[in-house]
From TrEMBL:
InterPro entries: 6-PGluconate_DH-like_C_sf, 6PGD_dom2, Mannitol_DH, Mannitol_DH/Oxidoreductase, Mannitol_DH_C, Mannitol_DH_N, NAD(P)-bd_dom_sf. PANTHER family: MANNITOL DEHYDROGENASE 2-RELATED, MANNITOL DEHYDROGENASE DSF1-RELATED. The keyword Repeat does not apply. This is Mannitol dehydrogenase. It comes from Marinibacterium profundimaris. Pfam families: Mannitol_dh, Mannitol_dh_C.
């Protein structure tokens, strides 16, 4: 029978399972991390765990947190196993399991976020981290700037003592720390946004200024918001993953599978100190931008490029998608010919070499990363990772045919119907609007680009707009594979 994961049972786990080699009772909190999904536990928590294995950063343990009602269910699952997670690495040559113990608690999730604010008031907390996805920053879709008119934000401005949002809770905690003289903490975004630290600064400083101008000025002067780039492919946990962890002899309610690759690039801007992450493989640099641009445009953008045709054709996983020669060809040609020319090399990696690396990672058959997970929230992910590359190419006068095809495929996907007639279930916060426009675009392709909050001036561009319209018409007239074949030949 599998062994229930807990502090007490760590010595009883199978020998092949790596488990914490440090005394978890000796850990003390230094980080509050909000958004305890699979990615954080496979990435940031793992880096800290590796430091603790060396006897370092023992006063930087993680207190988990969330602000959504379903986060409480996650908290209860983790609490039942002393906040540990089994990480299963899925390498094409084999798999291995490791128990990560760097998280030592999870703040109760309550309306008004009182427990979360109280935890951030602890002077020992020196970093507050965030993984709330690209769509969680209350950005205007047209400008990609913070929208202070959102009802939740307006509520927080007027009621900082009982905020609804994570950002309101952070501002409330910083206000109390300022009054108590316990000093600021660093706000560390780990989401896939270009300039994620800059965006987090704008959200928090603007909210604070609207609530209390003096508080806003204090935060702007004292709190730091380092930019960072995070990278690891981490599938969602479902029946397959739950069965897999049991094969290792462990009963874990929330295991995480991941690929055999991680990267973390961070600006060294920490107002209250930080763990020495560079000692376990993180890159500390003054310039995150080039790393970030390469990853967002080729990996995150590449995911969107291949997910739309895969969904239309009924493929289930990303590795299956890369086995389809036309879709793999689409990814490589767009990445090499239309995206890479606008990117810069980073130490030890050119854009062209990065395309090969991502090709290999997407093709990993051991990773059951679903097309549905990758395609989720395309309205944030296309506009954050694909559309900026289109603007760069248009501005430079370089080819955009494949990028136009990628948007036509997304429009076709958003009709909600595959080519085999089956239904594509809603998969975007704006699905109803996207579906209505996608259906209108079947007869009038320009209707899709008239979503100017996504495309801006691209709707009027004399090269991109006609290319998009031609591809969408061909997709409807001849099918997805015919359009892909035309592009590749």
């Amino acid at each position: 029978m599998p062994i229930q994961l807990s502090n007490a049972t760590l010595p009883d786990l199978p020998e092949e399972v790596r488990r914490p080699g440090y005394d978890r009772a000796a850990l003390s909190p230094g980080i509050v991390h909000i958004g305890l999904g699979n990615f954080h536990r496979a990435h940031q928590a793992w880096y800290l765990h590796r430091l603790m294995e060396q006897g370092k950063a023992l006063d930087w343990a993680i207190m988990g947190a969330g602000v959504r009602p379903n986060d409480e269910a996650q908290r209860l699952k983790l609490a039942a196993q002393d906040y540990m997670t089994t990480l299963i690495e899925l390498d094409p040559t084999g798999r291995s399991a490791e128990v990560v113990g760097s998280m030592i608690g999870y703040v109760p999730v309550e309306q008004g976020n009182g427990p979360l604010i109280a935890q951030m008031l602890d002077p020992a907390i020196r970093i507050v981290g965030l993984t709330v996805t690209e769509g969680g920053y209350y950005l205007d879709p047209a400008t990609k700037r913070f929208d202070p008119e959102h009802p939740d934000i307006r509520h927080d401005i007027a009621h900082l003592d009982t905020p609804r949002t994570v950002f309101g809770a952070i501002v409330s905690a910083l206000a109390s720390r300022r009054e108590a003289g316990t000093g600021p903490f660093t706000c560390l975004s780990c989401d896939n946004l270009p300039g994620n630290g800059r965006i987090m600064r704008e959200v928090i400083v603007t909210l604070a200024q609207l609530a209390d101008p003096e508080l806003g000025a204090w935060i702007e002067a004292n709190v730091t918001f380092p930019n960072s780039m995070v990278d690891c492919i981490v599938p969602a946990t479902g029946p397959r993953e739950l069965a897999l962890v049991r094969e290792f002899g462990i009963a874990d309610q929330v295991p995480v599978t991941h690929e055999n690759f991680r990267q973390w690039v961070i600006e060294d801007e920490f107002c209250a100190g930080r763990p020495p992450w560079e000692e376990v493989g993180a890159t500390i640099t003054d310039d995150v931008h080039d790393y970030e641009a390469m990853k967002l445009r080729i990996l995150n953008g590449g995911h969107q490029v291949i997910a739309a045709p895969a969904e239309i054709l009924g493929l289930e996983t990303i590795s299956q998608t890369m086995e389809h020669p036309l879709i793999r060809g689409l990814f490589r040609k767009i990445a090499l010919e239309e995206v890479s020319p606008h990117l810069h090399a980073v130490p030890d990696m050119t854009p062209e070499a990065y395309v090969d690396l991502i090709d290999e990672r997407f093709s990993n058959p051991a990773i059951a990363d679903t097309v549905r997970r990758v395609a989720f929230d395309g309205s944030s992910r296309h506009t954050g990772a694909v559309v900026p590359g289109i603007h760069d190419a248009v501005k430079a006068g370089t080819p955009v045919s494949g990028l136009a095809l990628s948007q036509a495929l997304w429009a076709r996907m958003c009709t909600g119907r595959r080519e085999n007639g089956s239904t594509i279930e809603p998969n975007d916060p704006d699905w109803d609007d996207l579906q209505a426009v996608a259906q209108a675009a079947q007869d009038d392709p320009a209707a899709w680009l008239e979503q100017r909050h996504f495309y801006g001036s691209l709707a009027d561009d004399p090269v991109f707009a006609p290319a998009f319209a031609a591809w969408l018409r061909q997709i409807w007239d001849e099918g997805t594979e015919a359009a892909l074949r035309s592009y590749l030949t």
